[in-house]
Design a protein that fits this description.
mainly beta, five-stranded mixed sheet, 6 helices
Amino acid sequence: MKNLGLLLLPLACAGQHTDWPAYGGGSDHIQYSPLKQINRDNVRQLGEAWRFDTGDSFKESELQCNPIVIAGVLYATSPKLRVFALDAATGKQLWVFDPNEGRKVTGKLRNRGLTYAKGRIYFGARLWLIALDAKSGKELWRTDLRDGLGRPRAEMSVSLTTPGVVYGNLLIVGSIVSEALPASPGDIRAYDLDTGKLVWSFHTIPHPGEPGYETWPKNGWTYLGAANNWTGMALDEKRGLVFVPTGSAAFDFYGSNRAGDNLYANSLLCLEAATGKRVWHFQFVHHDVWDRDLPSPPNLVTVIRDGKPVDAVSQTTKSGFVWVFDRVTGQSLFPYKEVPVAPSDVEGEALSRTQPLPLQPPPFARQTFGEEILSRRTPEVNTQLKERLKSLKYGGQFVPPSREGSIVFPGFDGGAEWGGSAFDPETHLLYVNANEMAWVLRIMPAPPAAAKMNGQQLYLRQCASCHKADRKGTPPEFPSLEQVSDRLAEDDIRGLILNGAGRMPGFRQLGRPAVQAITQYLLTGKSGAEVTTETSPMEQKFSFDGYNKFLDQDGYPGITPPWGTLTAIDLDKGAIAWQIPFGEIPGSGLNNTGSENYGGPVATAGGLLFIGATNFDRKFHAFDKKTGELLWQTTLPAAGNATPAVYAINGKQYVVIAAGGGKSGQPSGGSYVAFALP
């Protein structure tokens, strides 16, 4: 079976295609619609057509789903991972499927979309890959995502938050795993659409005899993890090539037990879709210790070189760059160089001597952190930040993590993020929304491993890097564990520690006495008696003190605006066409600040760029795609931290977006809102 998105693309150009058939609009993932009923001239008349409330929002929940629309039916998920089929013209529910099987949902779950093929809906829920009948919502099969990874099920936490792509009778997917050890390997895998059986795997941490094995410690594949594709992929159906960006290896801030460049972490992989065989790759960060995952799906684009069209693939990064490669050869279409970087002064760490940086196009986010960009919101704020900066290391890209604390800028959440970029095939402009936030990365000694440890010691060693030593965490990404007994029963806490969930690894390898000791510490706050523990190659001397933004004394970003941007980049010329501050943080005393933003844009043939994404103002926007001029906006019931979908039914064009909020401490929601002309 041919990929649906590419089969229908010629019809789209003829004006007959009305669907949004895949995550990002199609297997090329360019987030573009050829529909133009809604255009520059009439977009100001846009109004709400329908609203569907999933009823599933709760404190700190999120809703990141990019809906798909097939033959007049919209398929989407809720904050609790229930799958809905709606009449796409009215928002009326047709069916619902609940994968939770009566299990109470209290923790944050994420899903960014669904896959449609052969009359079925495919999606990930917790440890499962599930197939549903698209007409009825009836479950057809499910496959345990922990199988086929070469390690015991009980030791792994593997899920699927971003949908895969369909090639022939294969569903090709990545995974989300822990970014701390223990972590599951990030294999790229293809499953049979009819049965859910595994057909092929590509080892992103190579096994003996595979290319790249020499870039890891001997036998590292048996205990190291991650290097996973959590953000999605793109498919060239004609050539049978799938393009897969990967993230960091675990543990992602200190790598004494993974010496080497660590292929294929932090890489763009080009694989044969039928077999999983590697065609080419490019690694963006060697031996990553800055959490520089590739954060966005690639875009399959066509650009002009020497007057001729070239099929290419573009990839945005957290550090604020866009790279463009020849789709077949992997050759970069713009120049870059390997630049020398400073060595680490943390015991046991051996960084790569060089890192690649592109020379063109210009970065879409600032690259250098220094006193000159410290916030001047008030004189007192500026003075306080200057004093803090005296104790930190900072500069350009690749400042080594340190015991004192090093500034990572742009931060752990970009630059670019998971919402992806939109590409306009008319103008060859790529549109990317970005964050500009500084974070402090501080390496800390891990509590020493010992044959016997009490509950508090075990917590500090295994849990504090994410949830902090004081158990306050950094919500909503890493929730507070203070008074956790008010939210979870003892069995639930113990089960989470044993089995993990999403990015949180399971700690079954510590043994049940150790897990029980951590459970009791969280319940009572008392250290408890010592228990026998086990050590492994995953144990390291150093960890870090958590995810800490560089904020001023009032909680605002410690840098001058913009704190978020929206940029159009000409991929033919390698130049920025326009850039504007994007979003607003209220109460700062400043205007036009920009803000952190999550979820991506969609470009249309009507001359528009639709995007929600901004965390604080709950706006949904329509910009002129040529100039960046704001033409229309409305306020959503919660922040639209998702990528919209554009489709038409019976000649009427709609734009729909999930309003889920829950980022940056903002209120959560759980609804889909569709807009159309009167």
